[in-house]
Design goal:
The protein is 36% helix and 20% strand. It has 296 residues and is of the alpha/beta class. It folds into 2 domains: 114 residues, Nucleotidyltransferase, domain 5 (2-Layer Sandwich); 161 residues, 2-Layer Sandwich (Nucleotidyltransferase, domain 5). The longest helix is centred in the C-terminal third of the chain and has 25 residues. The protein is globular.
Length: 296
C-alpha cells in the first residue's frame, strides 16, 4: 500500500492507494497553521489512522515549496511556518521510516502521468492555474526535481512575447514584475478584467458573462487564452512534452482546450505540434494521489 499526504495551507489530506490505484482510505484534518510541531504530529496521526485500515505502507508527502538540496530545509513555501525546517528529517524520525517529499505541483503532474489524463505518456508537464501558478515535470514516470529543486517553476518567468501594455507587467510577490503568475492566476484574471472594465468578477463570473455575450468579458477571456498560449509555448519549446495537463480552478474554463492549442502554433518553434492540452482527470485529488505515487 501507498499513503499520500497533501500538506496544504488550510487542510492536510491523507489517501491510501493499492497497487492498482484504487482508494482504500481517505481522511482530512485542518492544518495547524503557524505551528510546525503540530503540523508534523497531524501528518503522523493521519498516517496512523490510514495504517489501521491498510497496514504498513510507504509515505509520500506533497507540500508547498520544496526541500533545498543544499540545506535539507524547506524553502519557498507559502505555508511560511515550514520554511527553514527539516521537514523530511522530522517526518522520517516521527514515522520511523523514509518519507519522500515533493512540491505539490510535481505531485499533481505525477498523478496525471501515472493514471490520469496523461497516463503512459513519456514527458508530461502539469500546470496548476489557481490562486498561484505552479508547474511540475514528469519524465518516464518520474518527477524531475532539478539541481536547485525548482524544475517546473514556470510561473516566475516573465510572460513571453509581451503584447502592447503587458510590459513591465503587474508586480509579483516574488519582487519582480510581469511574472506569468501575475497574468494567469485566478487573481490575475480578475485584476486584469477589473482594470479594463471597472467590474470586479472572479474567473467563473467572467467566463459566464462572456458566454452570455458580454463583449468586455469576451475580450478578457480572449486575452487570457493568448497569454496562456504564449506561456505554454515557451514550455513546449524547452521540454517538448507529449501532454500538458491543466488543474486548478481556472482549468475549468472548457474553451481553453480548443482555443489555446490553436493560438500556440504562432510561438512554438516547430512545423507540426502534437503536444496535447488536457484537463486533469483526478481534479483536486491529483495532488494527494501523486504524493502516494512518489514511491514506485
Amino acid at each position: 500500500m501507498r499513503i499520500g499526504i497533501d500538506l496544504g495551507g488550510t487542510k492536510i489530506e491523507a489517501i491510501a492507494l493499492d497497487a492498482d490505484g484504487r482508494e482504500r482510505f481517505r481522511q482530512r484534518v485542518p492544518t495547524p497553521r503557524g505551528d510546525y510541531r503540530a503540523t508534523v504530529e497531524a501528518v503522523a496521526s493521519l498516517v496512523a489512522q490510514a495504517e489501521v485500515v491498510v497496514g504498513s505502507s510507504t509515505v509520500g508527502v506533497g507540500m508547498p515549496g520544496v526541500v533545498s538540496p543544499a540545506t535539507g530545509l524547506v524553502k519557498n513555501a507559502n505555508s511560511t511556518w515550514l520554511n527553514g525546517r527539516p521537514l523530511s528529517e522530522d517526518l522520517a524520525a516521527r514515522l520511523e521510516r523514509p518519507v519522500r517529499l515533493a512540491n505539490d505541483a510535481n505531485c499533481f503532474a505525477l498523478s496525471e502521468a501515472t493514471d490520469g489524463a496523461a497516463a503512459g505518456m513519456a514527458v508530461v508537464f502539469g500546470v496548476i492555474l489557481g490562486t498561484g501558478v505552479g508547474g511540475g515535470l514528469v519524465v518516464n514516470g518520474r518527477v524531475v526535481t532539478g539541481a536547485n529543486a525548482i524544475a517546473g517553476e514556470w510561473g516566475h518567468n516573465p510572460l513571453p512575447w509581451p503584447d502592447a501594455g503587458e510590459w513591465p507587467g503587474p508586480p509579483c510577490y516574488c519582487g519582480r514584475t510581469g511574472c506569468i503568475e501575475t497574468f494567469l492566476s485566478g487573481p490575475g484574471v480578475a485584476r486584469d478584467h477589473d482594470a479594463r472594465t471597472g467590474r470586479n468578477l472572479d474567473p467563473a463570473g467572467i467566463v459566464a458573462a462572456a458566454a452570455a455575450g458580454d463583449a468586455d468579458a469576451q475580450e478578457s477571456v480572449s486575452r487570457y487564452e493568448r497569454r496562456l498560449a504564449r506561456g505554454l509555448a515557451s514550455v513546449i519549446n524547452v521540454f517538448d512534452p507529449d501532454a500538458i495537463v491543466l488543474g486548478g480552478g481556472v482549468s475549468n474554463i472548457v474553451r481553453l482546450y480548443e482555443r489555446v492549442p490553436r493560438l500556440w502554433t504562432e510561438f512554438v518553434f516547430s512545423d507540426v505540434i502534437v503536444t496535447r492540452l488536457v484537463r486533469a482527470v483526478h481534479g483536486d485529488s491529483s495532488g494527494v494521489r501523486g504524493a502516494a505515487w512518489l514511491w514506485e
